[in-house]
Write a structure and sequence with these properties.
Helices cover 48% and strands 13% of the residues. With 244 residues, it is of the alpha/beta class. It binds zinc ion (ZN). Residues 207-209, 211, 221-222, 224-225, 227-228 line the site of zinc ion (ZN).
């Protein structure tokens, strides 16, 4: 629901980015740093089975600051919110030592029901207190693995509910909504050149298994889980078109 028109009108304003330390949210953070004069980040600790992704966040923030003096100036506070209740109510592969598989619904059992709705609600509550009206998230309908809370319609409805419920007009920017993983790599290159692509390869974490022992050309991971496969496929497509 975000486009160049809204980003122009957003100049001079502040944004809060849902920042997990993965490829998608790091690309979103760069997107926000390009557009907003102050950018804060929020991460959620809900008892993920592996905290590897969360551990990458500070290094990535430092890496992004080092890429551009303007980005260093714009990057503001980081917030980590603990939501242990989310882990308690979800029995999924991300939070319990169960095998990643597909359940009867056809959704990966990494699915935490309504996770993005909860994240956006916490983010909006914090944004309200910080005087921020723009939220930025990596939700994507193209590679969404069937997660219904990544859909554009869900995000639009959530924005309406949050704006009404807090009596404050929020914008939710989802720059990855209609693009695939290859386009996400391309967007990173457009935003921060090869240096940003390299930072994402080296420092972001996407693997469901928390694996960082193996290094592939697209970064670290197990190479086998659905998240690694998606990332690897996107990388191959991105590189193939670059060299074609
Ligand atoms: Zn993996």
């Amino acid at each position: 629901m975000s486009d160049e028109a809204t980003s122009d009108s957003a100049k001079g304003e502040a944004a809060l980015v849902l920042f997990s330390g993965g490829q998608d949210s790091t690309t979103c953070l760069a997107y926000a740093l390009k557009r907003f004069h102050r950018v804060e980040t929020i991460g959620f600790d809900y008892g993920q089975r592996h905290a590897v992704e969360l551990d990458r966040r500070q290094g990535l923030r430092a890496g992004l600051s080092a890429l551009s003096p303007l980005w260093r100036q714009r990057l503001g506070a980081d917030h980590v919110i603990a939501i242990p209740a989310l882990g308690e109510i979800s029995q999924t592969a991300l939070t319990r030592e169960t095998e990643i598989a597909f359940g009867e619904t056809g959704l990966p059992n990494t699915f935490v029901p309504g996770r993005n709705i909860l994240f956006l609600t916490f983010a909006a509550a914090l944004a309200y207190r910080r005087g921020v009206s723009h939220l930025v998230g990596g939700m994507c309908e193209t590679d969404y693995s069937g997660y219904p809370d990544c859909r554009d319609a869900t995000i639009r409805a959530t924005r309406t509910a949050l704006s009404l419920g807090m009596d404050k007009e929020f914008e939710i920017h989802t720059p990855l909504m209609w693009i695939d993983k290859a386009d996400t790599w391309r967007l990173a290159e457009k935003l921060g050149g090869e240096a940003l692509v390299r930072l994402i390869v080296e420092e972001t974490h996407t693997c469901y298994l928390g694996e960082r022992g193996l290094r592939f050309e697209w970064g670290y991971g197990c190479g086998e889980c659905p998240a690694c496969k998606l990332r690897a496929e996107g990388w191959r497509k991105y590189r193939a078109e670059k060299t074609a």
